[in-house]
Amino acid sequence: MSILKLTKKWVATRLPERPESANKGSFGKVLAVAGSKNYPGAAYLSCAACYRIGAGLVTLVTEEIVKVIVSRKLPEVTFLSPGEILKNINKYDVLLMGPGLGQGNQAVKLFNGLLKNKLPQTVIDGDGLNILSKKGEWWKKLKGEIILTPHPGEMERLTGIPIKEIQSDRVNVAQFFAKKWGKVIVLKGAESIVVSPAGLVFISPFVNPVLATAGTGDILSGIIAGLLAQGLKPLEAASVGVYIHGLAGEMLSEKIGRAGGLASDLLPLIPQSVRKLT
User: Got the DSSP string for 196-255?
Assistant: First the structure.
């Protein structure tokens, strides 16, 4: 079993290139299916993180009330209605599904409908994982290059293994299911773990309670989706994203301490973290 600790040098050599002659099309397009009336912030945070890591265009599919909220906070985002997804999905490099989506009938119907189609590179987070966990042998239906980003509770629902057992053997559990499912897994938490289906394991060096607050996982999923859009392969996008997310958390801790941070405090620190690596 190959286990590697993520380092500044490893991450720095895998950052996307930013040529001076580039335009927004050079840095990829992300389609996010996220947010609901109870969780509008998840849509905002994940989409904003896509932009902050350098994606060229981010389009959001969500409820009407969430459109109003997000457009006021993030005027750079564009929108599609749920009925427009399938005829436009091929225009996007990356699909981000699940942050704050909820598990209502409409969300489940939309999510399951997407799974029946050929998808671009995809990141599934939050309620996307919760919806998956209710589908029998979902991994056999979910084809393509997929990154799953569960926290321990979502991993419990996906696997049926109690959180205590997952946390006591995080590497082996993540490695077993990455192979079984054929997906890259990011098992979030202190020293987040990134595992490939082939068994390669990367471990984050960061342990930071300032990140233990609502919304930070939405930001991580947005960072990873944005890196995918810029051309990184799934394992690299997940690993680089985890490191940058952790580094932004360290920078926030230096400013305010180990408690009291808001997830949105991380957003302006994402590009600053990238700058620290270059």
Answer: -TT--EEE-----GGG-STTHHHHHHHHHHHHHHTT--HHHHHHHHHHHHHHHHHHHHHH
